[in-house]
Amino acid sequence: MPERINQKEIARLANVCQAAVSAVLNPNARGNTKVSSEVRERILRIADEYNYRPNLQARILRGNGCSNLVGVLIDPQISLFFYDLLLPLEIELRKRHKRMLIGQIGDNPEETESLLRNFLDHNLDGVIAIHHDVRDSERIFRAFLPLLPQTVFLNHPEGMPDTRAVCIDYANGVREAVLHLAAGGRRRIALCMDDAERYLSMRMRADGYRQGLVQAGLPFDSGLMFIRRPGTGCTFEEVISDAVETLANRSGADAVIAGNDEWALALLKELNRRRISVPDRIALVGYGNVRNICRSTAPELTSIHHGTEEVACKLARALTDPAAAEQPVLSRLVIRESTV
Amino acid sequence: MPERINQKEIARLANVCQAAVSAVLNPNARGNTKVSSEVRERILRIADEYNYRPNLQARILRGNGCSNLVGVLIDPQISLFFYDLLLPLEIELRKRHKRMLIGQIGDNPEETESLLRNFLDHNLDGVIAIHHDVRDSERIFRAFLPLLPQTVFLNHPEGMPDTRAVCIDYANGVREAVLHLAAGGRRRIALCMDDAERYLSMRMRADGYRQGLVQAGLPFDSGLMFIRRPGTGCTFEEVISDAVETLANRSGADAVIAGNDEWALALLKELNRRRISVPDRIALVGYGNVRNICRSTAPELTSIHHGTEEVACKLARALTDPAAAEQPVLSRLVIRESTV
DNA sequence: CTGAAAGCGCTTACAG
DNA sequence: CTGAAAGCGCTTACAG
Q: Chain A to chain B, count of Cβ pairs less than 8 Å apart?
């Protein structure tokens, strides 16, 4: 592979001026430099022969040309679902000849600001914010949104319903789960998950739970809703043990819908330890439908899916097409052994 | 936040020439433009006030300045372990003020070439190849390595021992596992994994297995080595079922070391289905020590760990420091319930 | 100590 | 139809 060649050098080899080379190699340019087809052929041949690639930095500096870079904001508390989202998202972006620049945001607002400033430096074509649950996020995003290129959120950030966002309807899958469990004869269906105040996604799960109960004609019983409060100082194991004690023993649950697959797995383990049979005595539903997990437990785990491919596709499309952000992505129940 | 300001504008506001601004804002530059401390203060104040950020593209075009971008090559068959590596790697790169540009390579050599060419366009500071198991990879990497910036591989690519690579000693953890199992009284220790020809990592597991047997004073029995051959047309479930049939029933195994945690989970499920107790009748060891999985099974899964943090740190360091690539990272056994 | 100028590679408005 | 030139924002060799 020869050394990198530039337009000036091609022009010299083809015996034309550099502007002609530029015009030939950018057919859709609006410049009015026209060239004869003979000259065009010569330039194209040489460019091909020497493996010409335009200099990206020069193009951007000039004010034309885009970086083909899309910033993707994630955070360290990323759950397995969002991990599963990264690869499909890369595939969707690649289809559009874009590449993913990863920005991991932490708890520190200053670091988040410095990250976004760095994003600005790179002249991104767009930003996809998969995670934006940062302290002070409203202030930060309000300051940066006008400067950043088109930004698409996965669900609206706190207090900013005016942003472009692909939303997941977290409620639907839970509603479906309740109906499925009720159809299987379960009457004491519980919901078990992390702090509901902070995360919209958790609140929506609770909404879906209530909707499902109403549709199934079952009463709501607050004793069947186990929600971990933050800052109690309990370990995860203690919380899970407490949840099983509360739901299975005290409240007489015959089914549990977990806030995510990790919780479902931990619950399954604790139920096994206490010799409470799943699904015979208690049916169990996860959330996230994480590959490799749901199909590897015994019994296989029923879970709620919100199509990573669909979400990835919509996020990528929404960068250029506002319509892609309109319809929410429905979460759906995927039935396996743990509920039958 | 004010509009973006450039050196020319700062120079105008400070009543100096642009070169002075450049000199003040790049203290380590070798230009011999010197400025009085009074002028320096004025320039710094204005730059700060207007939130000056140097234009990255201009710097790169000028020939100085680096992109602070590191390309990271992954592939779609990325296992959960490598996923777990991405976030620690991002953290290590961020410490060095670098950002991760994701390149997902597929089976198609042309796409891989186009990906690498795109990497060249972005003027990367370095490339970390986590996955490089592509068809034709030797030809491709031989062509691109001289053009790419410093490239660090996770394990050497096929046929290229002369590359800079952070190597994982996959053998050690398996050796430790065999010794641990033998110490617990197991005598028929099996190894169960995917095609060993293709992946060095699989061959090294087999090496560690043999070393462990020798050290434990146990005979090698080829009937205890179950290796999936590619292209048989069997589903994953069929392979796992076949493995359990072969190892547990025909070969009388009392312990199984799996090639990865996904296999271990699937084996555990199949053993449960056949009412073969783990660890009572058969001890089980995974590989990868994937978070959320090993601790969520019943019994909890003993697995082999090759410290993602250590690997991430060495990969990032090796970009600038060849010494970081010298010592292999040892895989280690993490003992949990499935082997006691 | 300070300023004017060249040039990185590119696109495009303008003149011939 | 073709060529000469300006300018994106920056660094640095050079002249005063």
A: 116
Contacts of A157 (CB under 8 A, 6+ apart): A129, A132, A133, A137, A138, A141, A163, A165
Is the separation of the CB atoms in A329 and A167 below 8 Å?
Answer: yes
pLDDT digits (tens, 9 = 90+) for B289-306: 887 678 778 888 999 998
Residue among A53, A55, A102 whose CB faces B90 most closely:
A102
Contacts of B67 in chain A (CB under 8 A): 122
Residue B258 corresponds to which tokens in the numbers above?
């799996």
Q: Which residues pair with B304 in a beta bridge?
A: B333
- Tell me the C-alpha distance between A92 and B116, whole Å: 18
The full set of domains in chain B, from first to last, is 7-61 (1.10.260), 69-166 (3.40.50.2300), 170-306+326-339 (3.40.50.2300)
Nucleotides of D under 7 A from a protein CB: 1-5, 7-15
pLDDT at B78: 64
pLDDT one-digit tens code per residue, A91-138 = 999 999 999 999 988 878 888 999 999 999 999 999 999 987 777 888
Asked if residue A20 keeps its beta carbon closer than 7 A to nucleic acid strand D, the reply is: yes
- Nucleic acid strand D within 7 Å of B61 CB: yes
Min distance A271 CA to chain B CA atoms (Å) = 10
Q: What is the pLDDT of residues B49-67, one digit of tens each?
A: 888 998 999 999 988 788 9
Whether the CA torsion A279, A308, A156, A74 is positive or negative: it is positive
